Amino acid sequence: MSVTPNEKEATAVATELPHTDSLSYTEKDGKSDDIDGKQTVDVESLSVTDEDVGSTIIQKDEDVAVEVISVEDDPELPAFTFRAVFLGIGLSAFTSVLSTIYTFKPQNATVSQLFCLIIAYVLGTAMHSIMPSTGFWRYLNPGPFNIKEHTVIVIMASTASTVAIAMEIIAALDLFYNIKLNAAIAIFQIFASQMIGYGIAGLLRTFLVYPTYAFYPNYISVVNLLQSLHFGGVLNHKKRRYFWIVFAAIFFWEWIPQYPFPLLTAISVICLADNGRHKFVRNLFGAGSSNEGIGLFSFSTSWTLISQGTPLVWPWRTQFNSFLGMAIGYITLTLAYYNNAFDGRNLVWMSTALFDSQGGSYNQTAILTPENTVDPSKLASVGLPRYTTTYVISQMCYNFGLGAAIVHVFLWHWSDLKKAFGGMRFLKSSQDIDDPHYQQMKKYKEVPQWWYLLLFVASLAIGIGCSYNHGEWLLPAWSVILFTFISSVLAVCLGFIAATTGFQIQIKHAMHILSAFVHPGKPVAVMYVNLYGNSTAYQTLAMLQDLKLGQYTKIPPRITFAAQLAGSIIGSIFNYTMMISIVSNNREALIDPIGTRIVSTWSGWIIQGYNSSSVAMGALGKELFAYGKPYYLIAFAIFIGLIFPVPFWVVHKLARKDSLLARGAEYIITPVVALYVGWLPYSVNGQWWSCLVIGYMSQVWARSHRPKWFKKYNYLTSAALDGGSQVILFILSFAVFGASGNAIDFPNWWGNPANLSVDRCALTD
Predict the structure, then answer these.
(1) Is 38 left (phi over 0), alpha (psi -120 to 50) or beta?
(2) Span 236-267, pLDDT tens digits
(3) Is 508 helix (H, G, I), strand (E, B) or coil?
(4) Could you tell me what percent of the chain has a pLDDT over 70?
(5) Which end of the chain has fewer CB within 10 Å, C or N?
(6) Who contacts 685 (Cβ-Cβ below 8 Å, separation ≥6)?
(7) Where mainly found (predicted)?
(8) Which residues are registered as beta bridge partners of 386?
(9) What's this model's pTM, rounded to 2 decimal places?
């Protein structure tokens, strides 16, 4: 092979890239958007085999972005095709309906990107095989189904499948306040609340998308699978075969713990020995049913549950901090409850609902006027609502985590912030960033920053307009602007943590508290603050991750922009229509404060959380959360959390460099620890000890002692397990769990008891 001077550099780069079976290297004039001087390297000489994959250990967490993911790009591959549009629209509608169904289920399941990816791959390859490819048909079927159109479909479908917080708020208004929004207003509001976050995400690209440190651990397995399915070579042939074997294995296994043998979702030797006789055992060790217990020493064999901890994907540092938080949580939650902290000893152990003084469900309508404001005389008669002790601790920890996140980012990553935002450099899209994936993207036309600014302003205007309903403001315009600004600032800190650790800090409780003081006595306004104070940051993170996915797979930025817009529009329509159907047909089940077993039936535990917060904080903020009141620590937890990172940072600075003390202080991620102390009092908890074992074996043992296997198969294993379990869960949801309207219960036996929870830890009669 003859090599020109320019090609020598290309060859040197190519041979250093792991998992690269073929590579087209391109150079581009920085002043032009056209591809100039494309040099092609002999791809056969660069074919990667099993022996070529490096056995070096990945040292830094972000190095997986270049050690596991190839930077290969073929600019000739079409991304915007008939297949991409047809399947993108169809799967967007499908996944938005499915994710809405899961929102109203007791099991905290989601529609993952990997589920979208697998369905898109099967359908895309089928379309290529079935459709003619000559004459006019070549425009509809332009060659094999490729990675770029596949990624476009995934971005559309996953954007649509991200259930908008606006939909959940609209459902809560319907269920608990009998406020039914006009369909057009509701749909536009859902769309606008998402697009505000998208506008902010675009402005943060130079800080949270382009650089290597922003590697988004949760997306490594997605990209690894995409490249394995579409890139050629002996290695990827083996990886594809491995993927489908693991996919099939979990597909045929997962239905067993999910349906006939639910005991396998939470195996606890202590619970089996107790057999539901003692509440203390249930509270501490139970984990198989919704709101049962916090799952100490409970192990799960259901990957649907285990995948919530992302043990194969999250860096061990993130997992270690989360498990450390849980360990503290086991002690804190138990001691607080049994010492009657927050006067919650006579209430149930776990619930997000509101309770009255006798432990029954709180009648919120009995204290409100027809205008949904507090009637003082009615409140005096009914009394103040109460939270369960575990839910109070959880809300405090969420706020601890938020305060710690802000300070953590500023202390540990000030130089990165200064580099990205100093002199308003974030408004410029052309920056000197050495990330190899970003360098490959320079050949494509970028989305101008003013597009994102225009989208942000237009969406904010639509959101303000839709907040006016039947002659009154659900949330005043000035408040929409205020909380959008607050959420935008927080998105910078939260986005950095998500990009570098894979972990997302929740801010909804903090927004509830703040809104309670901004809108005292107005529960509907407090609930609506979630759209702009909480949803904006959440949607910003979701959109940033998809922008990174586009960078990893070399999708032209303007096509990524269009795909996200299309997915949001389709998702908004189907989120709303499916939500209306579920709420109309299952009202009684959705307002039940305790919930049901993990399988079948419907549950409103997510919606109840918004409602209880809006009543307790919106209508009764001063009575419950002002200083000296029953739950004032929830509000002040944000300020206490600001202190958490400081001691560790000081120790790191003062201790001898590279000493055990300095490295240990740096290893602690205080916002993750703080939040996970209160992570357990929700839904089911049978999976966390399985996550601990699997996470250690993957991110510590395999990464250090089996680096070749780790690079080739670790993230692919995660993709296969997630994909197979998602597919079978979808089938079961409609076949037997009642998503189609009729649930079919499996006959009771020892592994599926009639009068006990699924882990045999609590009586259900």
Answers:
(1) beta
(2) 889 999 999 999 999 999 999 999 999 999 99
(3) helix
(4) 88
(5) C
(6) 266, 287, 293, 294, 295, 298
(7) membrane
(8) 355
(9) 0.82
